Amino acid sequence: MMKPLLSFEHISCYFSTSFGELQAVRDVSLDLYEGEIFGLIGETGSGKSVLGLTALQLLPANARVTGEVRFENKSLLQLSEKEMRHVRGKKIALIPQNPASSLNPVLKIRTQLREAVRHQKELKDKDGYLASWLQAVSFSYPIKLLQSYPFQLSGGMKQRILTIMGAAGQPKLLIADEPTKGLDAPARHDVVEALRNVCRQTGTTLLVITHDLHVAQILCDRIGVMYAGRLVESNDTDSLFATPGHPYTEALLLARPTAGMKPMAGDSPNLLQVPSGCAFHPRCSYASEMCVEQLPPWTEYGQKKYARCFLHAPST
Predict the structure, then answer these.
(1) DSSP label at 1?
(2) Which residue has the higher pLDDT, 221 or 198?
(3) Beta-carbon count within 10 A of 100 CB
(4) Boundaries of each ABC transporter domain copy (predicted)?
(5) Which among 6, 56, 207, 292 is least surrounded, fewest beta carbons within 10 Å?
(6) Torsions phi, psi of 280, nearest 5?
(7) pLDDT tens digits, residue range 134-170?
């Protein structure tokens, strides 16, 4: 049995607010394996980004995390800030979702990319190394681009630069948080190809956090679906899009333009007042009294197909 590269074990994340304690992630367990591309999808506020940031200890000061995050079978949540600095960028790298605020506007691209590889002492020609990365993600004039400033680049170009900043340090795991947010169709295509090329050439494991279902479908090997802080489904990509195992996943897919844009009933719940039982039951056409009263178990209903729904529970 292959050992996972990264494991979230019963992770829950809480935030102290003026209205009380808000639970953004609820008892999530999830494994990522070496060399795979795993997608996390769900509506805004479902807990996708919060879960990803727990692996790097990048949550704000008002956050509290319970459970365990293991990377290469080592506990990450037990590491000090000094120890985490040897993990971030070197072993696990983050591609943030906002290139406009993630790149320094007064520094050339060359300076910012060189920072990403400064720990690689064996590199003699860092500019040549970075130019090869730029070519790998479809930049035609890499040397010229190294001399550019961020304001001279489009949104898609800046997002690809962030991809290189994450990948050039040769981490074992990349976490891409909404990598195509706010981009037009051609730019989204370029960013997806950049991520795919990076993983293909390096064998890097990729965790893609996205609300873009099309991106998840064409890029990911497996997908997890989150709703109101819980993981409600995990499946290989083809199976999930062909025969979704959870009513929420089904509703997400029906809301796509290519599926007729059928709107989902109701609204996402307030995380300070999450419904009892299955949190999706107020919006679910399959809901029964059991769904209101009890939390459905995490059930394997086929080969590597999992869902948190009474439709698949052994007792039904």
Answers:
(1) -
(2) 221
(3) 12
(4) 6-253
(5) 292
(6) -85, -5
(7) 888 888 888 899 999 999 999 889 988 998 888 888 8
Give the pLDDT confidence score for residue 31 in this predicted structure: 96
What is the pLDDT at residue 167?
Answer: 86
User: Which CB contacts under 8 angstroms, 24+ apart, belong to 181-184?
Assistant: 181/97, 181/98, 181/211, 181/212, 182/155, 183/155, 183/156, 183/159, 184/156
Contact between 313 and 298 under an 8 Å Cβ cutoff? The reply is: no
Name the CATH superfamily housing domain 6-308: P-loop containing nucleotide triphosphate hydrolases (3.40.50.300)
Number of C-beta neighbours around residue 10 at 10 A: 11
Return the residue matching tokens 């590889």.
117
pLDDT band at 261 (very low <50, low <70, confident <90, very high): confident
Question: Is residue 240 within 8 Å of 249, Cβ to Cβ?
Answer: yes
Kindly report the number of other CB atoms within 10 A of residue 219's CB atom: 24
- Average of per-residue pLDDT across 54-59: 95
| Long-range contacts from 133-138, C-beta under 8 angstroms, 24+ separation | 133/164, 133/167, 133/168, 134/164, 136/194, 136/197, 136/198, 136/201, 137/163, 137/164, 137/190, 137/193, 137/194, 137/197, 137/198, 138/190, 138/193, 138/194
Q: What is the mean pLDDT of residues 11-37?
A: 96
